[in-house]
Design a protein that fits this description.
This protein is mostly helical. It has helices at 2-13, 37-43, 50-71, 81-106, 110-138, 154-175. α3 packs antiparallel against α6 and α4 crosses α5 (110-138). It starts with a helix and ends in a 5-residue tail after the last helix.
Length: 180
């Protein structure tokens, strides 16, 4: 009995083996991870979700194509379809303008969402307006008239400028779409 009493006394005085916390991010020999939630988050790979913004942009382009067909621009369409075309144009514009921003928000990236929405809603119109204004200032009409005229090619240049910003925003949103 003395041996049992001595063993019990030694165990009571010995420090606990489990007293030291496990090192963060270290796996045991059984494969179980002792990583803390913070360490697990730091070790997590930053995943690319640009395919989601590209899918939303593809949807907006498809809606714009459908709206173009329903609006009957340049063709004879049934008048009943023209108002529907206007609604689809509105959907295409909203999808392009705020769709990728919503994707960024779902990935907890509010600043990326703000940048995306501002670039799309403000950037494209500014590019078009800037091109039109620049053309009017650089190439003023020879005679002042009550009717505002732009030099030849201004409309095409505005379309190219707006289209460039349009597709640049699609590319930027997709390239920089990474989880935080």
């Amino acid at each position: 009995m003395d041996d049992a009493a001595t063993t019990a006394e030694v165990r009571a005085e010995a420090p606990a083996v489990d007293a030291a916390p496990p090192v963060s991010g270290v796996a045991s020999s059984t494969g179980a991870s002792f990583a803390t939630p913070v360490a697990r988050e730091a070790l997590r790979e930053r995943r690319w979700y640009g395919w989601q913004t590209l899918a939303v942009d593809g949807g907006s382009i498809a809606l714009a194509a459908a709206a173009l067909g329903l609006s009957g621009l340049g063709s004879q369409r049934a008048p009943a379809l023209v108002p529907l075309g206007g609604v689809v144009w509105l959907g295409a514009g909203l999808t392009y303008g705020i769709g990728p921003a919503v994707v960024h928000l779902t990935h907890h990236r509010p600043l990326a969402a703000l940048g995306s929405a501002l670039g799309r809603v403000v950037g494209v119109p500014l590019a078009v307006a800037g091109t039109m204004l620049g053309a009017a200032l650089l190439f003023p009409p020879k005679e002042r008239s009550a009717e505002m005229t732009f030099p030849p090619g201004t409309g095409e240049a505005a379309v190219v400028a707006g289209g460039s910003v349009f597709f640049t925003m699609i590319a930027v949103d997709a390239i920089f779409a990474r989880d935080p």
